[in-house]
What we know:
The chain is of the alpha/beta class.
Amino acid sequence: MKIAFLGDIALIGKYDLTKNPEVRDRLKVLSVKLAKYDYVVGNLESPLTNKTKTMVCKSMHLKSATINVELLKYLNIDAVSLANNHTYDYGKKGLEETIKTLEDNGIEWFGVNSKEFIKEIKGDRVSISGFSCYSTNGSGFKTNNKSEGVGLLTYDNIMKQLDIDKKNKAFSIMSLHWGDEHTNYPKYEHLCLSQRIAKNKDVLIVGHHPHIIQGVQKINNSIVAYSLGNFIFDDCVSINGNLKLKQNSNNKKSFIFEVNIENGSIVSQSYHGFRDEENGFIIFDIENELNEISKPLINVHDKNKYEERRKFQINKATIEKFGKKDLRWIKSRFNYYSIGAFILRKVQYKKYLREASKFISDN
């Protein structure tokens, strides 16, 4: 079974058929490449909805017209994770419209409403599930006994899913939406969580959310790709027009993560780099670059030094993207969405700290 995993997908800007009818021309090289796989899985960041208003508090809302599901089909994408921090940007109705659009077009989905699924291809059986972390400042999480919502990345939920997969005799594939944006360094506690998961069961973890590439790590017989970066994205504008985020060179490159699974084990993996340029996408050899990005993840002995490097990169990228927090910046954030998002971040951060302690400790 040869599966391709893709990074964050937002069908916006020049990747929106309502704004660029010729978008397929830009995507052709990727479409041809992905046609060669038995199964293709991505992370859909832009809900497929025709809603135009939302009361959900976010600094940046993402959405895409339902017609853009045609681009997912054109790219030969078979399934998408909805376990991310943008799934509820347009509320429950936006999610329901997304799910209906996907189902009407034969695209499988997972990561919300307790939905994961087992896929059997060429005699191999895999379980595909998705979870989103409090660290991503999302909303609509499925907590306690709720029947609906985004799968929440907790230690208990992960271990429960691994037990279910074991009983179903299926190899575990997990799409985890986690970490901080604009850094090549995963959170230290997510490195620890990956180690703990790999002790319990062979697993493939595919990460999203940072919007740039993070390293790949082999742990026992498991493989963790902490972030695949952006697969398809464009510049973003907030719903009130006050905040604009432009793509940079780090956002515009990613890789197709190819994994071969046979007899319930990973037998090989490879990385096919691609870059979004002015005239379209180009394929390039990313292996050396990815190896360099992965090196700091090996045997992190000094947590403080590791965190210093990570936070330095985050702070630098934040200033480059948003500028310094002067009076003008403060005024631009003084609105319903930004104030609500600020409060939500504070609440989510406290919840995250409680969960992060479980990622690290065996007690």
